[in-house]
Amino acid sequence: MVNAGDTAWVLTSAALVMLMTPGLAFFYGGMVRSKSVLNMLMMNFIALGIVGVLWALYGFSLAFGNDIGAGLLGGGEFVGLANTVGHLAGFAAADGSSPWPGPDALPVLAFCMFQLMFAVITPALISGAIADRVKFWSWSLFIVLWSTIVYFPVAHWVFSFDGFVSENAVGGWIANANKLGALDFAGGTAVHINAGAAGLALCLVLGKRRGWPREPMRPHNLPFVLLGAALLWFGWFGFNAGSALAAGDLAAVAFTNTMIATSAALLGWIIVEQVRDGKPTTLGAASGAVAGLVAITPAAGYVAPLGAIAIGLIAGAVCALAVALKFRFGFDDSLDVVGVHLVGGLVGTLLIGFLGTTSVNSLSADGLFYGGGFTLLGKQAVAAFTVMLYSFVVTYILGLIIKKTIGFRVSAESEAEGIDEHEHAETAYDFSTLRAIGGTAGTPRPDAATAKAAEHVPAHASKES
User: How far apart are the C-alpha atoms of 380 and 385, rounded to whole Å?
Assistant: First the structure.
């Protein structure tokens, strides 16, 4: 029988996670230059259109269908969302008091739509690594290929549990205790490490933006960045607490951990900025919050609140330092997807091996600090680095194929004059109108205005200081 309260919570959480993609668009959109903001918004919004259709056609089936072998990929029983309407998902009651699917049953379609929002935002996260230089339709093709070959299989590995979407279903090799049994509450591996590794691969395939790192490429609209970060923080409660799939104590634990870890990470990042640069910045506060959200995602339902604070502080400080790696190694990760999502995802996933505790969730495991030894840490490392390697290698190959066939990067002229006009025949701001109503003949052109947009810019927003 359907649990109405849990179903309402999962559907509400799905709506919250959906809001994260527009929130990400504003977060990234504010960080790019004024001449490429529309392109960045579109690179995020198109994921809603493409992945939504792919998920209905075959994505949900590849991710959550009955495993076809070795825990690597789901079967075809849900193609076209067949066998979903009127069907239930859930686990049998642990005490044997009721048959499958137990007292917490959800409509399969409620779970399907919740998971769709994860599938949408993951490729959207990659877009920040390659901002300012990508052809829109090449990016759209990449989303189709990457979602199909990378995300849907990895989602099966991490999120597909035996006996959930159907009584005898077999799930993925990372999630289930009879296989690896690593812990990932809401997507540290499948979403953040996956997207971060893919972002690094595409940075290497596409090369640097023209002028980077010699020219400062500052955020053109910091209020957009804060708005986007706020929407992400709000939506992330659905991302993490919704992953409990029930409106109960575990959802409350995940909600609490999400809040306090993010708060701690914000502080950790701006403290590093104060020590390193002499001033805490708006962009640093927003980036620190996102780093905390990333790091607590895999751990939200597996650690105690004090553990969540520790994860947040560590992630905020480590990610603030990690964003400088692109200058040291010379890869142009435009909006720090590698420094925040790959590094933050690794931090959160690995720290479960130290801070995981069954005291908050019987399905958790005790980490090193709770007497569990190194076993859990080993499992976490296998899951994290396997997903990272698979995503990086396959993404690199896909990027090369697109580059060598239809082309992946815009022309030098398009990049210099403005990718918005060349790719979308639009601009975000009408500077000629602004001059007419309140400016003078000497009003700076957009590029000059962008260059003067901020007095204090963190190292990860421009050239290394």
Answer: 9
